[in-house]
Amino acid sequence: MKTNLRRFFVTCCMAAMALTGFAQNEEMTNETVLTLLKEGFSSEEIIGAIENSTDRKITYSIDFMRQLKAAGAEASLTTFIQKIAKTDFGYEGILWWNPTDGGKPKKMYRTQFEKESKGFNLGTIAAMGAGALLVGSAVSGNKPSGGVAAAATAGTIALMSSGKDIQKLMLPGATSKLQMEGENGRHPVFRFFFPKKENESFQQGADNWYQIVMSNIQNPNEFQCIKMQVKEPKKSGKGGRRLFPDKMSYSVLGFEGTNASNRNIIDFEINEINNNTFEVTFPKELEPGEYCFFYKGGLGSESFKEHPFGFDFTVK
Questions:
Q1: Nearest-angstrom CA–CA distance, 78 and 60
Q2: Is the pLDDT score of 129 beyond 50?
Q3: Is the N or C terminus of the chain more exposed, i.e. has fewer CB atoms within 10 Å?
Q4: Measured distance CA(297)–CA(284) in Å, rounded
Q5: What DSSP line would sit under the chain, residue for residue?
């Protein structure tokens, strides 16, 4: 019996890690969802993968609803996709408002921080992989049990318990997926949307950790824009990462640093459009580099300490 339980636990962890790794590195689309269903992944697992995706383009239509039904999707997945399709193609979160190509504003998807470590890190893997099971279960309304519960418990390891932990965090990869070039890239305009009244996806009672964090944010003043320190990948092409600059301290008030490191705290200006829409611009031209909007009040949120994230972009 113990052997079977251990095997089940390992299988759950491997499935969660595979789905989370896939979601973080691949674009999630309608076709991706259908493919995962056909490969036998449960609706709950797919919800977890979508939630952890940093790049998704999912639309909703009656035709797609029929395709989901034919592929075996449960009502929880169909309802979830309806919700995020409305969110993604409405305005919510942070968008690059003046993209270089002059097209539709580009949404900035969050990137989760990981613990910087050498080699294999079980704590990081647990927080990334098994955490997907926890998120999926919370969104679908189902409580994990057995091996799934054990995996979910492992996934709640806090990556940031105090201000000192900030120097141990990293954004995976040497560069962001949002690449900004030209005049508009050096002088970007962002819109921050917090539509709590019109859209309940950031409601206070939400079960999902991301929604819990975002529901407490009122305006962009609660973020700091940080220019990240880049560690280039090794010769193999792997291992690149972005770190917070050296000689910076972090508290519930946000980042502070020496004169040298303060230049990595990028000032921005805020224009309130209405009660839940804000425009953010920069008084000075941005230099080429890696940047991140980081929630400076994160130490006050248990959900954020367990799942710290940032909205990152690259200026070329």
A1: 9
A2: no
A3: N
A4: 25
A5: -HHHHHHHHHHHHHHHHHHHHHHHHS-EEHHHHHHHHHTT--HHHHHHHHHH-SSEE----HHHHHHHHHTT--HHHHHHHHHHHHHHHS--EEEESS-TTSSSPEE--EEE-EE--SS--HHHHIIIIIHHHHHHHHHHTPPP-HHHHHHHHHTT--S-SSGGGGGGEEEESSS-S-EE-HHHHHS--EEEE--TTT-GGG-TT-SSHHHHHHHT--SGGGEEEEEPEEE---TTS---EEEPPTTEEEETTEEEE-HHHHTTEE--EEEEEETTEEEEE-SSPPPSEEEEEEETTGGG-HHHHHS-EEEEEEE-
Half-sphere exposure of residue 164: CA atoms within 13 angstroms, side-chain side: 0
46 touches 184 (CB < 8 A): no
Return the minimum-mean-pLDDT range out of 74-83, 200-209, 227-236.
200-209
CA distance linking residue 266 with residue 282, whole number of Å: 8
Choose from 94-108, 109-123, 217-231 the range with maximum mean pLDDT.
Answer: 217-231
Cβ pair 306, 159 in contact under 8 A: yes
> Could you tell me if residue 182 is left (phi over 0), alpha (psi between -120 and 50 degrees) or otherwise beta?
left
Check residue 237 and give left, alpha or beta (phi > 0: left; psi -120 to 50: alpha). left
Q: Is the pLDDT of residue 14 over 60?
A: no
Q: What's the gap between Cα 62 and its chain centre? A: 28
Q: CB neighbours of 72 closer than 8 A, spacing ≥ 6?
A: 37
Q: How far from chain centre, in Å, is Cα 220?
A: 17
Distances (CA, A) of 78 to 19, 73, 171, 200: 19, 7, 31, 18
Supply the pLDDT for residue 292. Answer: 97
What CA–CA distance (Å, rounded) separates 229 from 263? Answer: 12
For the record, the structure tokens of 35 come out as: 């493919």
pTM listed for this prediction: 0.63
